[in-house]
Design a protein that fits this description.
The complex is a heterodimer of chains A (89) and B (998). Chain A is built from one helix and six strands; from the N terminus they run βββαβββ. By secondary structure, chain A is mainly β. Chain B is elongated and about 115 Å long. The chains are: A mainly beta (89), B alpha+beta (998). The interface between A and B is medium-sized, with 27 and 25 residues.
Chain lengths: 89, 998
Amino acid sequence: MLYINCPHCGMRSQNEFSYGGDASVKRPEINKEVSDQEWDNFVYNRKSLRGKHLELWQHISGCRQWIKVERDTGTHEIFRTFKADEEVA
Amino acid sequence: MTQTFRIENGGFINKDKKLSFKFNGKTYFGYEGDTLASALLANGVHLIGRSFKYHRPRGFFGAGVDEPYAVVQLYRNGETEPNIKATEQELFEGLEAKSVNCWPSVNFDIGAINNFLKIFLPAGFYYKTFMWPKSFWYRIYEPFIRKAAGLGVASTKHDNERYEHKYEYCDLLIAGSGPSGLASAYAAAKNGARVILAEDKPRFGGSLLTSDVNIGNQSGKDWAEGIIAELKTMPNVVVKNRSQIFGYYDHNMLVMSEKVSDHLPSTKKYHPNKRLWYIRAKEVLISSGSIERPIVFGNNDTPGVMLSSAAKEYLKVYGVLVGRKPLVFTNNDSGYETAIEFKKHGVDPVVLDSRKNPESEIIDEAKSLRINIKYSYVVVAAQGYKKVKSADIASISEDKKQLGKIENIQCDCICVSGFWTPTIHLASQSGNKTKYKEEIDAFIPGQSKQNEITLGAANGVFSLDETLKTSFKVGSELSKKITKKNNEVAIPNVVEKKSSQHDKFWCVPLPKGKNYKRFLDFQNDVAVSDIEIALREGYRSIEHVKRYTTLGMATDQGKTSNLNGLQLVSEIENKVVPAVGHTTFRPPYTPVSIGAIVGREVGKHSKPTRKSPMHEWHEKNNAVFVDAGIWLRPRYYKKGNENLFEASKREAKNVRTNVGVCDVTTLGKIDIKGPDAAELLNRVYTNAWLKLPVGKARYGVMLREDGIVMDDGTTTRISENHYHMTTTTAQAANVLSHLEYYLQLVWHELNVNVVSTTEQWAGAAIAGPKSRDLLKKLFPNSDVSNEVLPFMGYMEGDLFGVKARIFRISFSGELAYEVNVESDYGNFMWEKIMEVGEEFNIQPYGTEALSTLRIEMGHVAGSELDGRTIPYDNALEGLVSKKKDFIGKRSLHRSAFIAEDRQRIVGVVPLDKQTSIPEGSHLVKDDKAPLPNPKLGHISASCWSVEYDNPFSLAILKDGKNMIGQKLFAMSPLKNKVIPVEIVSSHYVDPKGERVRS
């Protein structure tokens, strides 16, 4: 079971969180025209990466905040975690 | 004549406490502190079971977790458990056990005929033989194989034992209480670190219990006891015996199974049977020791052939002689230790050493005790069927290929030592890439992946002095890093005998003209010849060889067989062992009870149960409940002998004619506050929200980004910046997460807060033509007229002194209201409604009547919003704004979503107006068409229309818009029904929606 550093609460076990997919996906702005391809990429197209991956988790049984987790999908190593509105450098 | 193999003095058992037990129906005696294995051996019982494939007689091979043979069916306190290792099961008064895999008895087993047919049962036999004809598999082959196979019978009774889970955190978790575990635990504990020390056996000390060493002027065992006693007094240390760490998972999470009660005749009150520990450790020290490995020779599975370390353990720990004429067969010094132990107890062993001229302190001691030693000698084959009677032995050439003249010597047991295999399972599970250590012919942990360090014998270090020095140092340094304390611990002086190099020899060649079975894997009857066949047939990867031959599978997971299997493959393939590699070690290290894994989450505790504040009232009024997610909701209220159908019809009819009340507490409720609340709703829902006035409710539909309907419900504007959203019962949690997702991640510029208030409000839906009359009496101080409180209106009211929220919304399609009060007043509200409603013939109604009412109105619910439908499919396209953007809008342009013949909700009535259509039935054009009959749609919900007194269903139907009036067939192969039906409008009752506005 992963051990995730919630930027709001500290180290917590994975069973307090729920997974939320790729954090690098950006929703097209509301009220803005987007091409079919752009929309498809946003809704459906995801890379199944092996290696470092920025992903979303929600601390659902804790502070309920969505957070970003930089994790290696092959080794499960977690490098850094970020608050929802924190920019990832 | 009992316990004739028990020695007078010796053993760490309690001879003052005699225990009686039964094995295969016969009563025996043992002592407190025995295992079932040691007690049976004390009584001279060596035949304990039959082997898996050939049904050959099986005895004891080890003395612990590595045991491949002695698997029994255990009976304890009215319960039974299969797959118990007799070598691990502690004896208690009244224990009962039986042999497995034998019929009719262990002494006379019909399956043993396989032994004589074994030429027909080589590796892959089942794969090759039972392939065809295909139809034979289910009828003939499978039942036959099932009957012949298996190692025990699971109980079919409810398990009355309790199992617990426990979560724990520590600085250092130490697996194994042998010398390295004790030393590192002690050093770390002295530095104030939080330490958990786990030992799978009942006694602490590991190899120190049986080895002849001296630490700090004490015997190894006394030193271990002193350390444990001190550790137990320290508040920062948890010391656990009977506790097996069986799994090493991600981020230094380890799982341990503690046998709390298995050693007792029955579980104590309030105690669990087992406790599963989830331990998150900063550092893990693996001190799991090593397991002796066998040398392979002919008939090496005969009862009486066992590991030399096991023989020594039975003697030293339990005071039991495994034989009176022991033959020790060794390729290293460990065999001598066993021989010396026998000699000390007045038994004369013969030692066969495969080496030519070994020299060491231990061998000198054996010589000085005048033990009969034969160098360059091996056991060629054991003789005897149910027990070793003698051994064929021979000298062996230096290249280990030529055997000398075969001699037969009498013996009653053969203690075999083929050197030691480090127990690297936990390190390997952690992700550690193991490496082969040539010196010891075995794998040891390599580069650590997680925070784990392997110490002592588990790391391939067999010198006690070196092990203790390293372990004290590691324990001290790791804890220092964590606690910043540095309390020096003096490392005690060690006296041990030096060993000589072991012989790289693991398998005795077959003598000319002999065809003995030489077993590698004892639990699965995998012989040398089976591996040879697998390789001949082209299996190369060790993982494939394992699966084809079953080498290293079954309950012991090849703890004694894996390395010899690798040796054989490497020899045949002419590769070095590390090039062959080993199979993957996966958790669990040793079998774990399913009960322990499940813990307390069984039966009705498998998930939490949520009850509304009115639950007790429902119970008292004969409600029959139904699971709605984790909520319990009244399905109907039973009157007299009514069944579900009759009761729900009565309840629904009463709503249509008088007034009914339904508990709607379970609906999800979300409080939304903030200046941008309207903007959020406008983006989340498909319809427009910016102009909703205060005091009004609106129905809304929300989509996922892919255009599929996620949920629906009403949201009410309570005040300027305050909204009250309702969701369906099932989607409440998802909708909250959904809103949080957009607020926190996508649109953080929106100034809005959302919080779940589902549990804060109790809700009652009051529905029916007489509901306004009732409401007037419930809220005499409020004007609830159609003018002041119109459809989709909202007001606050005073319910006999309790503040209430009144929403004029309707799911039933009747004139209806929903009243909410704070949860603690829920029951008060409900009782008042029933009391005041009596004059209007009020009746409570359950979810079944609720469904009927909504289905005949064509209102959609979870069965239509099933994650596959868009607004159009549910006839909700009128709620989709063309002007503004919202979540999922862009997806609604997908070609499939705008296709001319897009599926759409319709009503379905059987032509005979009699036959109810099963939910899930498929709608087809031609009931006689060949399969697969093209499906046009499916029945999503069915009811008995109380308005028209005939069955009515909703369906999602292809081109539903143009299908009204068509005649189709509803087919349910599951219920074996074909029903001719007519497609009608989904708005079966009150299509203009006049009642809700009346």
